[in-house]
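User: two proteins, same treatment. go.

Assistant:
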Amino acid sequence: MDSTVWALLLSAVSISFIHTASGPDHYLPFIVISKSKKWSGMKTAILTVVCGFGHVFSSLILGFIGGFLGWQLNKISWFQDIRGNFSGWALLIFGGVYLIYGLIQAVRNKPHKHFDVMGDDVYVYEHNHSEVVMPQKRIKVTPLVLFMIFVMGPSEPLIPLLFYSGVKHSMSEIAVLVTSFTATTVLTMLGMVLLGRYGYSTLFNTEKLERYMGVVSGAVVTVCGVGMVFLGW
C-alpha cells in the first residue's frame, strides 16, 4: 500500500477506536444489562456485535453520501485538473472545522447519556451535569432500544475520508476505509464489553475522554489533510 492508503487506514482506525472507546454508551449498557439479566457471555457478545454493525451501518451511510458526491464530481471535465488539490484541501478544511466544533462542544455543558439500574431493569436518559432528570424522562433499555440508539449515532468524521477517496475514484481506498472502520468499531465494542463484564477496568477514564472525542477526531482528520496537501502522502 502507498502512503496515501496508509494515512487513510490509520485515520479510519484511530477515529473508530477513539469514537468507540471514549463513549461509555458504546459498552456500558451491554455490561449492565448482561449482569442484571444474568445473560451468558455468548448472548452478550452477539447483542454487542449486532449493535456494533448497526452503528457502523449508519456511519457508512453518511460516509457513502460523501463518497458518492466526490465520485460524481469527476464527471465534470474541468474538475479533473484540480481534483487532487481539491480533495486534499477539502479533507483539511473539514478536519479544521470539526476540530473547532469539538473544542466548542468540550467547553459547553453538552448533554450526554447515562444508564441507571433499577431492580432488574436498565434505563437510559440524557442530561447536563447540573440538570435533574425526572423519572418519566428515562427510557427502559431493551435490545431493540439499544440497537436503535446505535443506528441513530453515526461517526461523522468518516464522511471526509470517503469523500477524499470518492474524488480519486479509488475503490481500493474505499474498501480499506470501510473494512478497517467496521472491524475496529465492532472489535473495540466487543473488547470493552467483555472487559467490563468479567470485572476488568479500562485503562483510562473514558467519561473524561468522551468530552474531547470531537477534538481528537477533528485533529486526526486535520493531520491527515495536512499530510495530503503539504507532505505528499
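Protein 2:
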Amino acid sequence: MTSPLPSSADPSVLDLAPVLPVVVLADAADAVPLARALVAGGLPAIEVTLRTPAALEAIRAIAGEVPEAVVGAGTVVTPEQVAEVTAAGARFLVSPGWTESLLTAMRASGVPFLPGVSTASEVVALLERGVREMKFFPAQAAGGTAYLRSLAGPLPQARFCPTGGIGPATAPEYLALPNVGCVGGSWMVPAEAVAARDWDRIEELARTAAGLRDAGATCR
C-alpha cells in the first residue's frame, strides 16, 4: 500500500509519526532494507540527508522500491539540490536554514518543505511569507523546549520539527509542546547497526520511537 504524499488534503509531514528519522547513508544498497525496517517499526517518513555521495541514489531507491515510505531529503541548502532531490523522488524537503532563493526553490518544487529556523525573527519572517511549518535547528543548542514554549504564546500559528541533540529521553518533552508536530533524530538508526545491517534492531528502535507520542502526552 502506498502512503499518501502530504498535501493540503493529506496529513502534514509533521503528523505522519512522532519521530522523523534522520538518516545518513554511506552505501545506497542499505537504503531499501533500512527504509523497510523503519516503516515496519511505525516510522513511515524518512529524511535522507545530503551528507554523503550515496544520498541521491538512496532517495531514488527508497522512492522506487518502498512505496509505503514517505522519503524526503535533508540538509538541502541550494536551489540546485532542490531540483536534484525532487527528480530523485523526494516527497518532502528539509533545510537547516533558509535564504530567499532557497525558499523560492522549495516552494516551486511542489512538495512539502521544512525550512530551518533558530530565532523568533526567522519564524516571523517565514510566517510573513505564508510558511507555518518549520524545522527548529539546532534544537538543544538553540534553547530546547524552553525556547519553543516561549514561542508558542506570541506565535501559536507556527509548528515545528525540532532536530539536533534530541534523544529518546528528551523527545517526549518536545512532543508535549503544543507547537511541536514531531521531532527529528537519528538514535533509531545508530551507525553501528546500519554498518552491521542489523535491520531487526533498527525496526525495534523505530517501534519504540513511534510510541513516544504517548509518552509526550504524559509530560503535559
